Amino acid sequence: MLSVLICARNELHNIKDCVNSVIALADEILVVDDFSEDGTDKEAMSLGCRVVQHKMNGDWSSQRNFGLENCRGDWILVLDADERVSTELAESIQKVLNSNEGNTSYWIRRENRFHYNKATHGVLRSDKVLRLFPKQGAYYSGLVHEKLHTSTTKSFLSGVLYHYTYDNWDAYFGKFNKYTQLMAKQQYESGKRANFWRDIVLRPWVAFFKMYVLKRGFLDGKLGFILSVNHFFYTMTKYVRLYYLERHDGKL
């Protein structure tokens, strides 16, 4: 039995396409809703999903662990509401389920897409995510960019997971603000501290060079440059927040 776990808040514009990409594959789709105000929960229920409301409080791992506890399936496929399972990926997942092998978790190649803007390198280059796994013994840690812990072996699935990262620039900068806060808080709570010259002055330049040159953001033209510069400021902002957390006793 496969449970698809989707944690969501105010994702009315995304939830239908996400659910429809897995509805033929899943035995259940569980949406853990962070008390959405746009009707995400009602739309999910109308699509046949089981919806449980639970406050996230800025902790992605806690939210996903709550979802895992409430999933009924032996296998878990974790999705974000802005992701879509391709036809080839769905076929690969079905083959795994039919094989009855329960000691392997699977990496999935994810293509990041910015609505109305085309970029396939640098910040929006493809990445890999560990999303299909047996439920037994699995759990997450980390406030943001959470990590899955499982004792299973790892393998890769064929097929692509499409990730529609940003609908517009407002959404982009909204995530910029939220994620720099969460990353700084996570690093502070783990005992890390920021050095002004190393982390605030130098590290952003390294981040820009990595995205624009090493990860070939320059191949995406003007947008590649803009996203690489924004990554410069993302890195700086994250460490500025961490720097002042130490000086303000953990308060941003």
Question: Describe it for me?
Answer:
With 252 residues, this protein is α/β, with parallel strands linked by helices. It contains seven helices and ten strands. It has an eight-stranded mixed sheet with strand order 3-2-1-4-7-6-10-5, with helices on both faces. Helix 1 (12-20) packs parallel to helix 2, helix 5 (169-189) packs parallel to helix 7 and helix 6 packs antiparallel against helix 7. The radius of gyration is 19 Å and the shape is globular. The protein starts with a strand and ends in a 5-residue tail after the last helix.
Main attributes?
252 residues, alpha/beta, eight-stranded mixed sheet, two-stranded antiparallel sheet, 7 helices, 10 strands, 42% helix, 26% strand, globular
